[in-house]
Specification:
alpha/beta; Aspartate Aminotransferase, domain 1; 2 domains; binds pyridoxal-5'-phosphate
Length: 382
């Protein structure tokens, strides 16, 4: 089955739900069992059959199964947000005394998680350069327990050679975890490219309408019980309503992403020609290794990219952003609407981008309208 077809058909079960096209929202805490034998059977297999709301109900199980199928994974574990998926996955994998290799271009709250939670708990963290590739082997220590990737990186959009990192880590039996929120399962399949666990903030493109928080981790057979056990015992639970919204978002993911991609290409290409723009940070349009890695491993790009402005623009960035009519100012991305945000990047290693950075999310609007809005913004920059 082709991916577009799969997105329409996975995670549905009309025969089970009186012919309903969409699986109903199954809100629950207590689940009643007809007798002790069935209660005991459910208790011994909490992840398989409904037992108690915290372990999931039919709608969350359908969503999990759908996410797993899209990634070609053995299974999926759901979390109440993308960050919870990252924190929960790391908590499941890291033991006291562990060493974690964390990409330096990681989403900022994950950097904070490392510095404010993991390091005080005794986990040693090394921030490694996003372009480490096979050179990651030199950074592995006997106590390294996780290699964490994010491609492209937050705000600076460096790509990573995930297969090379996967090969080096696999040779030492170390799991590779990747944040695949930008590409989604639609444009990149991490588990087929050397990663062991793929995380998505489903909050972004999967939900797609800026109205629910959700995270998902998909993984191979080896890691599924590890993630399930740890996640359940940390009390993570997802709302049935939000699972419904994610399944609903899944139905239109392909058409939305194609439009995000086309719109972003048009707007980013236009930005590339502005005198105020030093560089566009969008894997399909950058030169050198980032573009080559994207072309080799990904089948498309989504609506999020950055621009590095000329340093002389620094004092005028707020005037540019404040007057934009079609770009909302706010965190997150992946919804149907366009967004803009100046980026304040913190890195442990020297960053490739030095000028003022602005991040754009290109929504489903007509790109010509977005370009006109941006052109007026540049007029406000003396
Ligand atoms: C790359 C990336 N990963 C993870 C997250 C966290 O997702 P959530 O906001 O659902 O916690 C974000 C949020 O912006 C993100 O940009």
């Amino acid at each position: 089955m082709k991916l577009d077809t799969l997105l329409v058909h996975v995670g549905r079960d009309p025969e089970r739900f009186e012919g309903l096209v969409n699986a109903p929202v199954t809100r629950a805490s207590t689940i009643l069992h007809p007798d002790m034998a069935s209660f005991n059977a459910a208790a011994s297999n909490k992840h398989g059959v409904p037992y108690y709301g915290r372990y999931g109900t039919s709608i969350s199980k359908l969503l999990g199964a759908a996410c797993a199928e899209l990634d070609g994974a053995a299974g999926a574990v759901l979390f109440p947000s993308g960050l919870a998926a990252i924190a929960g996955t790391l908590a499941a994998l890291l033991r006291p005394g562990a060493h974690l290799l964390m990409v330096d271009s990681v989403y900022a709250p994950v950097r904070e998680l490392c510095e404010k939670v993991l390091q005080p708990q005794g986990v040693a963290v090394t921030f490694y350069p996003p372009h480490a590739g096979a050179g990651i082997a030199d950074l592995l220590r006997p106590e390294t327990q996780v290699v964490y990737c994010e491609a492209p990186g937050s705000h600076t959009f460096e790509m990573q050679d995930v297969p090379a990192i996967g090969k080096a880590a696999a040779a030492r039996g170390i799991p590779v975890v990747i944040d695949n929120t930008w590409a989604t399962s639609y444009f990149f399949k991490p588990l087929q490219h050397g990663a062991d666990i793929a995380i998505q903030a489903a909050t972004k493109y999967l939900v797609g309408h800026s109205d629910a928080m959700l995270g998902v981790a998909t993984c191979s057979e080896k890691w599924l019980p590890v993630l399930q056990r740890s996640t359940a015992l940390q009390g993570n639970s997802v709302s049935a309503d939000d699972c419904y919204l994610a399944l609903r978002g899944m139905r239109t993911l392909a058409v939305r992403l194609r439009q995000h991609y086309a719109g972003a290409m048009k707007v980013a290409s236009w930005l590339q020609g502005r005198p105020q723009v030093a560089r566009v940070l969008y894997p399909p349009l950058t030169q050198g290794p980032d573009r080559a890695l994207w072309e080799r491993d990904f089948t498309g790009a989504t609506g999020l990219f950055g621009v590095e402005l000329d340093p002389a623009c620094e004092p005028h960035v707020e005037a540019f952003v404040d007057g934009l009519q079609l770009f909302g100012i706010g965190v997150s991305w992946g919804g149907y609407e366009s967004l803009v945000l100046p980026s304040h990047v913190r890195r442990s290693l020297p960053a490739a981008s030095t000028g003022p950075l602005v991040r754009f999310h290109i929504g489903l609007e007509d790109p010509d309208d977005l370009i006109a809005d941006l052109a007026a913004g540049f007029e406000r920059m003396p």
